[in-house]
Design a protein that fits this description.
Layout: H1 2-26, E1 35-39, H2 45-54, H3 61-70, E2 80-84, H4 90-96, E3 104-108, H5 115-124, H6 130-134, H7 138-141, E4 165-169, H8 174-188, H9 191-199, H10 204-217, H11 224-236, H12 244-252, H13 263-266, H14 290-297, E5 306-310, E6 313-317, H15 320-330
Antiparallel strand pairs: 1-2, 3-4, 5-6
Length: about 325
């Protein structure tokens, strides 16, 4: 009888110790930095716990679920975007999920957006003032002086706010957001890219300008480097680039597109008109993504000088005679 009692005591001690260890190991969050977390409308407690575990915010989905149920939090969790601070208690976490106001907005900037489109989108989300955002200087966001915007650009930040999905805190203002997006550009434009630009004897500004032309011209990913090859070929031969997208940007400042480019548009004098001036435009005409930046740095070696939009992407040609035939075939 004494042996059974002793075993029971030992068992109780082991269970108690294990329980204490389990609680102590799971009563706080495990993230060591701020984490962006979204609770969707209709998410179950089980789903929220699973996502918290997947993001390494909590150790135990079971502990989170049991604690929430025992303490009456299950029905009080609200949908929203939350910034979760590191090492807070599970209680603080669940209290946070009751907040009626989100901490941040998810903003997606597509590849090829102009600075005007970015500013317009941010203003529509009440995150920035469009005019203030458009006129932020590169020196206000850049830590170094690797980029020197041309004197004839409309906006210094054009091309340098990287197209990406961002979690923008509500308290962030115009300059904060511009810095977040520029910092992402700096992360994308690696040391390898900088070294390659030097190999090509091109400034970063010229690389991004070419990349922005590719971004606007390419109909599909696999033709980006081919189009880049055409741009370099025409530059080498002293030919005008004759890219409609740059003409449109020169006329509209990236505020809108034109359904059709007329002869009168091609005659407009502009630092972005690649029909009446040689070389690349005065600066980027949009925000290029990584594939277009890589295409600008690593152009395909080809003999093409022309292209026209066909039924499935662009059709390339080496001579003007071939190009005219393609125009007749596809422009009908």
């Amino acid at each position: 009888m004494k042996k059974i009692a002793l075993l029971l005591i030992v068992l109780i001690i082991i269970i108690s110790g294990s329980t204490v260890f389990f609680i102590n190991n799971n009563k706080t969050t495990k993230n060591n930095r701020n984490v962006y977390f979204t609770v969707e409308k209709g998410d179950s407690l089980n789903k929220i716990g699973m996502q918290l575990k997947e993001k390494a915010i909590i150790n135990s989905q079971l502990y989170f679920k049991v604690y929430a149920k025992l303490n009456g939090f299950e029905k009080k969790i609200k949908a929203g975007n939350y910034i979760l601070k590191p090492n807070i208690s599970i209680k603080e976490l669940l209290v946070k999920f009751q907040s009626p106001k989100s901490d941040y907005v998810i903003v997606t900037i597509p590849e090829g957006y102009t600075l005007y489109q970015i500013a317009n989108k941010l203003e529509s989300l009440n995150l920035a003032d469009k005019e203030t955002f458009l006129n932020i200087k590169l020196s206000e966001v850049a830590q170094d002086k690797l980029i020197s915007p041309g004197s004839k650009v409309y906006y210094e930040l054009e091309g340098y706010l990287y197209p990406e999905t961002y979690f923008v805190p509500y308290e962030a203002r115009d300059l904060d957001i511009a810095k977040i997006m520029y910092n992402q550009f700096e992360r994308v434009f690696t040391e390898e890219y900088k070294a390659r630009a030097k190999e090509l004897n091109l400034s970063i500004d010229k690389v991004i300008t070419i990349a922005s032309l590719i971004e606007k011209e390419a109909a599909k990913d696999e033709e980006r480097k081919t189009i880049s090859g055409v741009i370099y070929n025409r530059i080498k031969k002293g030919m005008r680039l004759q890219i409609d997208a740059s003409v449109i940007y020169g006329i509209t400042k990236g505020e809108r597109t034109l359904e059709k480019v007329y002869n009168k548009d091609l005659a407009v004098k502009s630092a972005f008109n690649t029909y009446n001036r040689k070389g690349i435009p005065a600066g980027p005409i949009a925000s290029p993504g990584r594939p277009s930046i890589e295409a600008a740095l690593y152009p395909e070696e080809n003999d093409y000088l022309y292209y026209v939009l066909g039924e499935d992407g662009h059709v390339f040609s080496k001579t003007y005679e071939e190009h005219k035939k393609n125009i007749e075939k596809y422009m009908k």
